[in-house]
Amino acid sequence: MTAPLSTSPQDAPQRAPHRRRTTAAWAVAVGASLLLAACSSGSDAADTPGGTDETAGTAGAWSYTDARGETVSLDEVPDRIIATADTAPVLLEYGIRPVGIIGFSRLSEEALASFDFEGIEHISETDTDISLEKVLAADADLVLDIWSSYNGGNFGSIWGDDIERVESVVPMVGVNITDGAASTLADFQEVVLSLGGSETSPVYAQESAELAELSEKVKTLAATKTDVAVAYAIPLETSIDYAVPTWTPLGSTLVDLGVTFAELDSEDGFWASASWEEPGAYPADLILVPSTWADATQLETPTFTALPAVTSGQLAQVELRTGYSLTGITSQLEAFLAAYEPATHVTG
């Protein structure tokens, strides 16, 4: 839960609305179901929330039913968008420049170098210090975040009371990330194209081609490594938590490409915990940890350093929670491929 905004809902300054907002239920279009298809044009009709109506992206009104099932309808296509760390890179890939960014990014500095952030207001450096004054100053038409069903349903960067406070001055929608990377990429494509984005933008075209090439390499390799089990771990102070791969952007992609992951006993469908006394409760031949946790002292625990994957040198820095930009997924897919290619079966 993030810290509350400095201004209460009752005292929040209001700006005169220049977009009309309503709510309604309606059928939407969803993108292709496979990863590579999600990187190209085209959509099929489906009766699920999370898409744009037939007028979106054209002159006139714009509507979007988000992952919560709530519809935002505006008199015009929004052109002043506040993004979050998870959505800003996607917008920029399609050639849309947000007017502000909320939160932080898990993209590496190298990946971020692909984007030009000059002139984009930092509404907050993290997801705990959102400034309502900066939200108002941005004079935005829309806030775009991600949304998942985790813990009963959450946005990616805007939490708790902050949701009501931000929505008191600007409409907000969340792109569904619950159903895996392929579906999420398709949902992002739908909404971003409706906002005026283009698949011909240089970054999107380059990253799309690179992702397709890397994906084919991983798919071919995975067919020869069915006995190599992969796990993604976060070394917490009291336990080591293993992520169910299908809820993470890159993990979902790897599963679709045929990569074998360690079997987990997860109660919530997102994480499975193991004690430091028995960190190998879920045997894996290749263990991935994000670079932000690579220096955790817990990784020096004798029971962990004795794991077959660690003694075999099959511990790599790869972030499966990459965000949903092709740049983020591609950069970490390269890191995964470098670790996966030489990996062998080492568990009992």
Protein described:
- 27% of the residues lie in helices and 18% in strands.
- The protein starts with 27 loop residues before the first strand and ends in an 8-residue tail after the last helix.
- With 348 residues, it is an alpha/beta fold.
- Strands 6, 7, 8, 9, 10 and 11 form a six-stranded mixed β-sheet that branches. Strands 14-13-12-15-16 form a five-stranded mixed β-sheet, with helices on one face. Strands 3-4-5 form a three-stranded antiparallel β-sheet, with helices on one face.
- A hairpin with a 4-residue loop joins strand 12 (230-235) and strand 13.
- It folds into two domains: 28-198, Rossmann fold; 206-340, Nitrogenase molybdenum iron protein domain (Rossmann fold, 3-Layer(aba) Sandwich), CATH 3.40.50.1980.
Task: Write a short abstract of this structure.
Helix content is 27%, strand content 18%. The chain has two domains: 171 residues, Nitrogenase molybdenum iron protein domain (Rossmann fold, 3-Layer(aba) Sandwich), CATH 3.40.50.1980; 135 residues, Nitrogenase molybdenum iron protein domain (Rossmann fold, 3-Layer(aba) Sandwich). Strands 6, 7, 8, 9, 10 and 11 form a six-stranded mixed beta sheet that branches. It has a five-stranded mixed beta sheet with strand order 14-13-12-15-16, with helices on one face.
Order of helices and strands: EHEEEEEHEHEHEEHEHHEEHEEHHEH
Q: Number of DSSP strands?
A: 16
In helices, the fraction of residues equals: 25-40%
Q: Give me the CATH fold name of the largest domain.
A: Rossmann fold
Let me know the CATH homologous superfamily of the largest domain. Nitrogenase molybdenum iron protein domain
CATH class of the largest domain: Alpha Beta
> What low-confidence regions span 5 or more consecutive residues with pLDDT below 50?
1-58
- Let me know the average pLDDT: 82
- Distance, first to last CA: 41 Å
Q: Structural class from helices and strands?
A: alpha/beta
CATH architecture of the largest domain: 3-Layer(aba) Sandwich
Largest sheet: 6 strands, mixed
In DSSP terms (H or I, runs of 4 or more residues), the helix count works out at 11
Q: Radius of gyration from the CA trace? A: 21 Å
Gross geometry: globular
Count of domains: 2
Strand content: 15-25%
